[in-house]
Amino acid sequence: MADEDELDYPVAEAIAPGAVHEVAPGVFWLRMPLDLTGLDHINLWLLRDGDGWTVVDTGMKSDRIHEIWEGVFAEQLDGRPITRVICTHFHPDHMGQAGWLTRHWNCALWTTRQEWLFGRMISLDRQDEVPTWFLDHYRRIGLSDRALTAMSERGYNHYNSVVTPIPDQVRRVSSGEVLRIGAHDWQVITGQGHSPEHVCLFCEELGLMISGDQVLPRITPHIGIYPSEPDANPLQDYIDSLDKFAGLPSDLLVLPAHGLPFRGLEKRLDALRRHHADRLNLLEDFCVEPTRALSTLEAMFGRRLSPFEAFLGLAESMAHLNCLMGQGRVARDADDQGVWRYQATSHRADAA
Ligand SMILES: [Zn+2]
Prior knowledge:
About 35% of the residues lie in helices and about 25% in strands.
């Protein structure tokens, strides 16, 4: 994305796993390793909170992350307890250790209702076999019988293997609510699209915003369509929710979950909007003839993808197609094998 280098990164280098770095008085950056395609770390935040600490996000479930946390407890907390765990959203790198941390410290999980419900719902869905409706979704997208067989052999729900049990109770936070954390007020701003009700925390006094995955400096947050809600329009939700971040102070230091803290939120929001507008145009042009979702992968990504990248990429392509349908620019029907085909409703006037 063209604008990424125009952002200002006040801390030039990433910190080591388990080390902490104070980004503002009482606000510490903690980095945890992560083993995901394209992502090798997640940033967590430790906020001094009276006699204890508030933690924002927790890391994925793994023995190594437990060990790093134990080291942080021993060396980085000045002997004070963790008294509150806030999760920006339910994804395992963010909520994965929330169950363990809240039980270990006997404190509450704070997050939005939808993020908590999603985490609970997915963790309680313990079907062993991959359900037919799940495979049918991918059949309609155009996956071959062989790919569907491989998918059913991989199993259905891996969430519990990467999260400790999601807490049974929650302290709900809501859009617009102001949380007093230590000596400062933090306002909850919720985003959508990457996850259903994503928490961002804005502190005017400190000039900070913890953005989670909603706004990232170098990569675009994953926005995808999955079988549980095939007709959702998360990309439109995402684009619309970016407007909630307009008008924040221009010198705000944004603390993202991946990448480095940065200044230049407004530029980044513009770049994200432009990125998706360009991708929507590209897909619309690509769908001049009736096109299967699977066939859009090459147009969208321009290279061969690993199977896992293709799985995520398909979900992203679908999110753009559903967004185009929502805008009336693409229509969907099914071919004689029941596979969805997408076609532009008219030729774009400004198409190349
Ligand atoms: Zn996420």
